[in-house]
Amino acid sequence: MTTTAAHLYGPEHTALQDSLRKFIDAEINPHVDEWERAQIFPAHELFAKMGKLGFLGVNKPVENGGLGLDYSYAAAFAETLSHISCGAVPMAIGVQTDMATPALAKHGSDEVKREFLEPSIRGEYVACLGVSEVGAGSDVASIRTTARKDGADYVIDGGKMWTTNGTQSDWICLLANTSEGGGHRNKTLICVPMNTPGVSVAKKLKKAGMNASDTAQLHFDGVRVPQRWRIGEEGMGFMYQMQQFQEERLWAGAGWQTSAQVIRETIDYLRERQAFGKPLLDNQYIHYKLAELQTEVEAVGALFHKAVALYVGGEDVTQLASMVKLKGARVAREVADWCVQFWGGMGYIEETRVNRFWRDTRLGSIGGGADEVMMGIIAKGMGILPRQR
Questions:
Q1: What is the mean pLDDT of residues 245-274?
Q2: Residue 139 and residue 131: Cα distance in Å, rounded?
Q3: Which of 75, 121, 136, 148 has a CB 3.0–4.6 Å from the CB of 65, allowing a cystine?
Q4: Whole-angstrom Cα distance, residue 296 to residue 302?
């Protein structure tokens, strides 16, 4: 635990983390290998169990069934998801808690929260987020999905790509263009039930890692939903999504604990693995490299806790959250690559935890905003602006 975390977390945070670890040991880790082979996990079954224990609404409003705690508890929860022995299930849980629902909780009407947020907190609904498209991943402003008004309804046409939980979801938090014009003021977030006529799963995508989570390409063909299912004000969707990204990117930074755990497991393996008559761990080069990696991991943890503390205090942490995601993903990739190397042939076997971490980790520098986008946001926050043309 970093020094900042010691000031940020108290006994109540520790109790939440202990409870979650027990749940993970009982209900998730025994099944991870099976879910990885099946390339899907039973989201409705798992989320229903988590919902009963309050895990899906840690910082959501009490009036909507959440625990009503501040974001530091959500951060402690996210860090503890590193106890799960894969990256896919934590990611799917993160979509439910920190990616598809923050804007709804903050800006949704009482009616739309009753319809979509409350059953998601209870674990009765599985949620997904619809932002990225085939031609618009990190460039959110260029999405092409439209929602035109027709009476009291929106009629939605378009498609979404790389949608985590997409084949199992009950509803999608969808970003769509609701008017002509600029890329920042013409977008709206809309709650769309996945069983609405015209919504279809084009295909389930096979990925290089994160195998236990389902990822889908979705199509929307004349999908009609009432305008009252809009989240907040029309035309504010881009701004709401940028706010929502703060929590998504902070959540991604919580994965620093996984890197730390993989380093510990690698040390244990190297202590037992004999080569040339002595343990592999008895090698100064390996000592120094592991020490360097551990230092980098701790730096990410300190940055994460600083960002969380400021966010809890009501500050905009767009720049810091981008730094957390950028640095956390890059350090995780470095840890994964070196640890696979130190594990040798066993590191290249799919069944080992270190190999799974290696495959899962690569997504961190792509999903939720690529590294290059994070650097652009950081540069903008530094006052480094592009030349006007």
A1: 94
A2: 10
A3: 121
A4: 10
For residues 125 and 119, the answer to whether their CB atoms sit within 8 Å is yes
Distance CA 180, CA 159 (A): 18
Contact between residue 240 and residue 103 where contact means Cβ atoms under 8 Å apart: yes
- Between CA 208 and CA 2 the distance in angstroms is 32
| Residue 76: pLDDT over 70 | yes
The token pair that represents 152 in the structure block? 């009291």
Cα dihedral 115/243/167/328 (nearest 10) = -140
DSSP state, 164?
A: E
Q: What is the pLDDT of residues 303-362, one digit of tens each?
A: 999 999 999 999 999 999 999 999 999 999 999 999 999 999 999 999 899 999 999 999
What letter represents residue 271's amino acid? Answer: R
Q: Over the stretch 105-151, which tens digit does the pLDDT of each residue have?
A: 999 999 999 999 999 999 999 999 999 999 887 788 889 999 999 99
Residue 85, both tokens: 């022995």
C-beta separation of 61 from 114 below 8 A: no
C-alpha distances (whole Å) from 148 to each of 178, 196, 197, 379 are 6, 16, 16, 36
Q: What's this model's pTM, rounded to 2 decimal places?
A: 0.94
Give the DSSP letter string of 97-144.
IIISSHHHHHH--HHHIIIIIHHHHHTSS-EEEE--BTTBSS-GGG--
CA dihedral 216, 222, 225, 230 (to 10 degrees): 70
| CA 175/CA 132 separation, integer angstroms | 9
The whole-number pLDDT of residue 4 equals 59
What is the phi/psi pair of residue 262, to 5°? -65, -35
Question: What mean pLDDT, rounded, does the chain reach?
Answer: 95
Determine whether 248 is an active site residue: yes
Q: Is 268 exposed, middle or buried (0-12, 13-18, 19+ CB in 10 A)?
A: exposed
CB atoms within 10 A of CB 70: 13
Q: Which two tokens stand for residue 212?
A: 């236990």
Distance between CA atoms of residues 67 and 51, nearest Å: 11
What local confidence, expressed as pLDDT, does residue 104 receive? 98
Among candidate residues 12, 248, 265, 334, the one labeled active-site is 248
Q: Measuring CA to CA, how many Å separate 276 from each of 41, 151, 269, 280, 283? A: 43, 77, 16, 8, 11
Q: What are the tens digits of pLDDT across the range 83-96?
A: 999 999 999 999 99
